[in-house]
## 1
Amino acid sequence: MNYVTLILGMAAVTFGIRAAVFILGDRLPFPPVVRTALSFVPVTVLTAIIVPMTVSPHGNGAEITWRNPQLVAALVAIIVCALTKRPLVTIAISLAVFFVWQFAVLR
């Protein structure tokens, strides 16, 4: 029963925060500093998701070696993105590197 109460409480808080933003959206203007800070949220969230999966793919601590295909593909993606600035090219090349590294180099 405690878990149900906990989950319902978290759902109510989450819903309340999100609903307040939609209901008060135009009536509550954000200062420019807050708008600037909120523009960095997507990059921050993606970084928080991608870095742990890249550095520690098995969850056993950091695997910063050439035998980590996620890390190799991420490094290639950074280089390709910096050179081309084209997301689809970056994704295609880094996926190709990941699969080639995983199936050809590590076997």
## 2
Amino acid sequence: MAILMPKPDEAILARREAVVEALRAIVPGEGTVSAPAAMRVFETDGLTAYRQLPLAVVLPETVAEVAAVLRYCHQENIPVVPRGSGTSLSGGALPLADGVLLVMSKFSRILEIDFDNRCAVVQPGVTNLGITRAVEHQRFYYAPDPSSQIACSIGGNVAENSGGVHCLKYGLTANNVLGVEFVTMAGEVIRLGGKHLDAEGYDLLGLLTGSEGLLGVVTEVTVRILQSPETARAVLIGFPTSEAAGACVAAIIAKGIIPAGMEMMDRPAILAAEDFVHAGYPRDVEALLIVELDGPQAEVDFLLSEVEAIALAHGATECRISRSEEERALFWAGRKAAFPAVGRISADYLCMDGTIPRKELPRVLSGMKALSEKHRLGVANVFHAGDGNLHPLILYDAARDDEFERAEAFGADILRLCVEVGGVLTGEHGVGIEKRDLMTEVFSEDDLRHQQRVKCAFDEKHLLNPGKVFPVLHRCAELGRLQVHKGALPFPELPRF
């Protein structure tokens, strides 16, 4: 494992049997798993290059059980890693050898659907697509739609602030969550927000969303549901170069058009998706845009003509507008299946996740071509072009020489390129372990210390998901230590208590 995790605490490992017995008293029967063979299914998440068996696995069914497990682990100083469906692509749910894996998959009920207030109250184990399926009979839906929506859980979406195809117009998870119930590491149950639009006081809901399991364990989520638009149509646009497609994306947004979704694929991804899904993608183009417009019929028709004119002005060689709902769904089926499709053409791949300013798309795409040659590995690009959220898929074979190490180095260079052009390390996959050691590319030591002080306010012992996000973990006492230089305190004008 190239990315190092915290060294296991031998004292905890030595009392494993006692820990398992205590956990079984809280979550009895099959709710506590300790046999190595049975835990094997939990040893990794969507970032399958890294694997680690946990100390034990618990699958609670009630909030009281979650609180009791956390309270016990807090008292015994045992790390806890929360896990949803395990689809994280940044290693956010990678277990620890001396830690308890807290799996929330049994929290799988939709508790309430409130069409009058346009919201739903769900448990964190409900799948993303499950929410839409529950409300679509009344022509409602849940807007964030990551490609893994058929499997990923809403609790994991909150942890990573997931996005998806429609996040350009309708926002990420943070823009569609109204309230949460969560449990702190000390076992305290806290509610933030609710069915109302905004919560009073500090934006703790915004703080918790995207916190990657470092601040608390979510046990209930209130989400916003939207009424389905009157019309939705998509257009496939083919380009002779990726740079031309990137320039078209910037031009569409500059025109003031905000599509419901705007996705881009390069030639390797196009061919893989077409062979897998048979969506009717053109095979003779280097880049493909899928642009969807939704709203009233007249508005959609007008905007489609505007998008088509912009595309042709940027050298598009093909523009095909969906003629039916079935054809629109087929356009998207290829995009949604791009990740498994690429899995058919490469023994292994790393799915990266960086975000850049839209205007830098041509430059970054050219840069990735150069990096591909430098590291002698292929790359297929599939990404949310509208908001600059890139998902390069680095192709490699772990069984060959040093290809995995070169893939890691290639990925790190892509993320450094994103930061260089004014972007950030992640758009929706999170930092986890994958980007942890690159955090200093974006943040100063002071920045990271301030972020860790927030962590201390929720989890002073740093027991929740340690080893993730922060490249160097400081104890809370160290972060609060006051430096005295030559007998003088910093900021002497401030009152001291």
## 3
Amino acid sequence: MHQGSGILSTRQRRLAWLGFLLAALQAPVSARLVSDDSWLFSLCVALMVATVIIADDATRRRPTGATGD
């Protein structure tokens, strides 16, 4: 069974993981240091990047030639 290619290249996938980790780590740090709720923006960015990584995983695990019917 040959796996399909994802929506991200290998380099983009590594950068997405790096961006996710940085945003996820920055949220609690800024929550502690800043009195307003601007840390929620970092959390939302981390969740959006995680969604893209999950979508890439799903397309990579789908066999080549499989349709989404």
